[in-house]
Amino acid sequence: MTEYQPLLQLSGVSKTFADNTVLDALDLTIYDGEFLTLLGPSGCGKTTVLRIIAGFEQEDCGSVMLDQQNLAVLKAELRPVNTVFQSYALFPHMTVYENIAFGLKMHKVAKADIKTRVDEALRMVRLDSFAQRKPHQLSGGQQQRVAIARAVVNRPRLLLLDESLSALDYKLRQEMQIELKRLQRQLNITFVYVTHDQEEALSMSDRIVVLNKGKVQQIGTPREIYENPANLFVARFIGEINQFDGHVVRRIDEQHVEVVAEGADWVVKTDHPFVADDKVHVLLRPEDIRLTKSELVLDSVHVEGHIYECSYKGKTLDSYIRLASGTKVIASEFFDEDDPDFDYRLEQKVALQWTTGWEVVLPYEYAN
Amino acid sequence: MTQTFKFGFIGLVLFYVYSPIFVLMVNSVNGSRYGNKWQGFTFKWYEKLFENDALMQAAWHSLVVGITSATAATVIGTLAAVALQRYRFYGKGAVSSLVFVSMLTPDIVMAIALLILFVTLGIELGYISLLIAHITFCLPFVIISVFSRLKGLDMSVTEAARDLGANEWQVFSKIILPMILPAVASGWLLSFTLSIDDVIVSAFVTGPGYEILPLKVYSMVRVGVSPEVNAISTLLFVGSVVLIVISQLLLRYKRK
Ligand SMILES: Nc1ncnc2c1ncn2[C@@H]1O[C@H](COP(=O)(O)OP(=O)(O)O)[C@@H](O)[C@H]1O
Ligand SMILES: [Mg+2]
């Protein structure tokens, strides 16, 4: 990250439609050359952020700076920013070639250069043979690639992509994710990608910004976000997670506290300065939980419960366990064909174990 | 049974609507001057028509007024429709309703209103007054035609164009106009037809020096229905039908 220079800075940006506060004093720095993803549930204001950066929406307060230049004075058509719209917004009356050439024509690029650059862009998105087609003669994935080519051909400082892959089917989406990453590396353009799909965000981004209700919940690398969620919202939004509510009994050392939850004593690792009697949430990813037949467990921290549902997922076996307190837990284990004990039977009593340090401990929030 | 009834009924309606026009068309090629019985096929009434200089002069005037007023109404109406669609401004709703109301204003009211206006402003009755009047009653039709087309479009393309560096004028000329062109053309054809056919408003606002076709025909009929009138009316009818069919085809084509 350190090699990157700040490119775009949003400071204290707020936006209210009627009396619906969509963005609430948003601060965000986007670095030159990074692939940044805005991730959040639909309606959380992601599109609004992009529209403010692109110049289609005026922020109520706060500032947007690009390369130390205040964008407020710059009309949308003059900003060195291009957008790949959610609906693609291709020009229906123009061919693929004309669509891609449009931005260059508007910027009065010389005719010969236009041809070279459009051809190059067409090759880049592998649509060379479709130059003379009209948008309605293309499939969804092809239209999407035209929309990307039409934007990147202008070599913007910043490329904004709004849920660009969400309309595609699963397989095509996977291909396009790889394609987009390749393009971004090849072009060395800063991408700001918007999605509500956490898997997509995790697999493509250098950094993820988790948004909810117009506020930044957490900014970090995919790994930080997944492994150290800053709050319950992030923890739950990014992948499956099991939640146990408890309270701190005592501090063991600098990094460990003892917690009581689900009727058991747990030793958990945390950097947070918890003291005795603090209420906490202990969170565990399904893949971090190991299940064993409970009579085999003699020592160590564990919780017991009954399996009430099993679901075979191909690579993994997901077990749904109900603890004595009624708390429901999901454990996801890699399938081991050689282990005769692997198939747990329904209603079997099992012990849940995990490696200390893999759990996430958060201060108590009222939400459940 | 119901089938025969259905087709019989529709047939009756069509007969009711088209029989007068059919009689008129038949008589325009009937050798008999009085048209009460068939006296052989002839084109002589059409020939006489083209030899009638006064009538040809009036037809030329109608063509000039039709083309100029349709063109002006189309330009103004298209810009108005785009403004109504694209910009938010105070009183926008009221403006839209007023457009509809003006379309429903009785011709006679509009005719008198325009006449009073021209007299008050001291505008001489002739080509200019006709032109202004025809633009006035054609405008709402263009606006409605273009506006309904605009409403059906995905306007994110205009943002895409701006995003790619197009200014307001380029967004209009390179994106919006090509996309609404069928509706614009259809609005022009409709205006032209309205202008060529108009009697009431024109009767009030034209002067003796500038005769146009429908009024000329009207004055000829006062003397008695002549076969030339049948012929010119047939031509007007065929011309209008062709234009309206084209304009409808354009409107349909755009929906693809
Ligand atoms: N032009 C607008 N006028 C009124 N409300 C709007 C407008 N644009 C967005 N909103 C509202 O702002 C909220 C956030 O919208 P958006 O930024 O599109 O969310 P997202 O892209 O994250 O789904 C939504 O509740 C939406 O209804
Ligand atoms: Mg959105």
TrEMBL record, chain A:
<dbReference type="InterPro" id="IPR008995">
    <property type="entry name" value="Mo/tungstate-bd_C_term_dom"/>
</dbReference>
<comment type="function">
    <text>Part of the ABC transporter complex PotABCD involved in spermidine/putrescine import. Responsible for energy coupling to the transport system.</text>
</comment>
<dbReference type="Pfam" id="PF08402">
    <property type="entry name" value="TOBE_2"/>
</dbReference>
<dbReference type="Pfam" id="PF00005">
    <property type="entry name" value="ABC_tran"/>
</dbReference>
<keyword id="KW-0067">ATP-binding</keyword>
<keyword id="KW-1003">Cell membrane</keyword>
<dbReference type="InterPro" id="IPR005893">
    <property type="entry name" value="PotA-like"/>
</dbReference>
<dbReference type="InterPro" id="IPR017871">
    <property type="entry name" value="ABC_transporter-like_CS"/>
</dbReference>
<keyword id="KW-0813">Transport</keyword>
<feature type="domain" description="ABC transporter">
    <location>
        <begin position="8"/>
        <end position="238"/>
    </location>
</feature>
<protein>
    <recommendedName>
        <fullName>Spermidine/putrescine import ATP-binding protein PotA</fullName>
        <ecNumber>7.6.2.11</ecNumber>
    </recommendedName>
</protein>
<dbReference type="GO" id="GO:0005524">
    <property type="term" value="F:ATP binding"/>
</dbReference>
<dbReference type="InterPro" id="IPR017879">
    <property type="entry name" value="PotA_ATP-bd"/>
</dbReference>
<keyword id="KW-0547">Nucleotide-binding</keyword>
<comment type="subunit">
    <text>The complex is composed of two ATP-binding proteins (PotA), two transmembrane proteins (PotB and PotC) and a solute-binding protein (PotD).</text>
</comment>
<dbReference type="InterPro" id="IPR013611">
    <property type="entry name" value="Transp-assoc_OB_typ2"/>
</dbReference>
<dbReference type="InterPro" id="IPR003593">
    <property type="entry name" value="AAA+_ATPase"/>
</dbReference>
<comment type="similarity">
    <text>Belongs to the ABC transporter superfamily. Spermidine/putrescine importer (TC 3.A.1.11.1) family.</text>
</comment>
<dbReference type="InterPro" id="IPR027417">
    <property type="entry name" value="P-loop_NTPase"/>
</dbReference>
<dbReference type="InterPro" id="IPR003439">
    <property type="entry name" value="ABC_transporter-like_ATP-bd"/>
</dbReference>
<keyword id="KW-1278">Translocase</keyword>
<dbReference type="InterPro" id="IPR050093">
    <property type="entry name" value="ABC_SmlMolc_Importer"/>
</dbReference>
From TrEMBL, chain B:
<keyword id="KW-0812">Transmembrane</keyword>
<feature type="transmembrane region" description="Helical">
    <location>
        <begin position="96"/>
        <end position="121"/>
    </location>
</feature>
<feature type="transmembrane region" description="Helical">
    <location>
        <begin position="7"/>
        <end position="26"/>
    </location>
</feature>
<keyword id="KW-0813">Transport</keyword>
<comment type="similarity">
    <text>Belongs to the binding-protein-dependent transport system permease family. CysTW subfamily.</text>
</comment>
<feature type="transmembrane region" description="Helical">
    <location>
        <begin position="127"/>
        <end position="150"/>
    </location>
</feature>
<dbReference type="InterPro" id="IPR000515">
    <property type="entry name" value="MetI-like"/>
</dbReference>
<keyword id="KW-1003">Cell membrane</keyword>
<feature type="domain" description="ABC transmembrane type-1">
    <location>
        <begin position="59"/>
        <end position="247"/>
    </location>
</feature>
<dbReference type="InterPro" id="IPR051789">
    <property type="entry name" value="Bact_Polyamine_Transport"/>
</dbReference>
<keyword id="KW-0472">Membrane</keyword>
<dbReference type="Pfam" id="PF00528">
    <property type="entry name" value="BPD_transp_1"/>
</dbReference>
<feature type="transmembrane region" description="Helical">
    <location>
        <begin position="171"/>
        <end position="190"/>
    </location>
</feature>
<dbReference type="InterPro" id="IPR035906">
    <property type="entry name" value="MetI-like_sf"/>
</dbReference>
<feature type="transmembrane region" description="Helical">
    <location>
        <begin position="58"/>
        <end position="84"/>
    </location>
</feature>
<feature type="transmembrane region" description="Helical">
    <location>
        <begin position="229"/>
        <end position="251"/>
    </location>
</feature>
<protein>
    <recommendedName>
        <fullName>Spermidine/putrescine transport system permease protein PotC</fullName>
    </recommendedName>
</protein>
<keyword id="KW-0997">Cell inner membrane</keyword>
<keyword id="KW-1133">Transmembrane helix</keyword>
<comment type="function">
    <text>Required for the activity of the bacterial periplasmic transport system of putrescine and spermidine.</text>
</comment>
